[in-house]
Amino acid sequence: MMKDEKDIKIEVKVDEKEATGVFTNFSNISHSPEEFIFDFIFVHPAPPPGFGKLMSRIIVTPSHAKRLLLALTENLRDFEERFGEIDIHAQVEGGGNIQ
């Protein structure tokens, strides 16, 4: 949040299904002049090759996408300061590449 913005308290209710989250290992981002579309996909590592399922699609405005980028950048920086650099070329268990 910007320093000059007022703090707004928002109560968020979360159903159990959403609280458990969804695992994905691949993502795709597309955009138009009006929105950014974030697709989160699970690609199964076993045959048939390339089998995937769209797990979640999030559509946001360009300004919200930029705020998300800034928040993610800040969180990644904080994470790496605490736990060390994230190796994006590391192999996951079972031999599959992280997407």
Describe the model:
It contains two helices and three strands. It is α+β, with helices and mostly antiparallel strands and 99 residues long. It has a domain of 61 residues. Strands 1-2-3 form a three-stranded antiparallel beta sheet. Strand 2 and strand 3 form a beta hairpin. The chain starts with 15 loop residues before the first helix and ends in a 16-residue tail after the last helix. The C terminus is likely disordered.
Number of strands: 3
Distance between the termini: 29 Å
Describe the main β-sheet briefly: 3 strands, antiparallel
Structural class, by secondary structure, is alpha+beta
Could you say which overall geometry the principal axes of the C-alpha atoms support? Answer: extended
Our estimate of the beta-strand percent is: 15-25%
Count of helical regions: 2
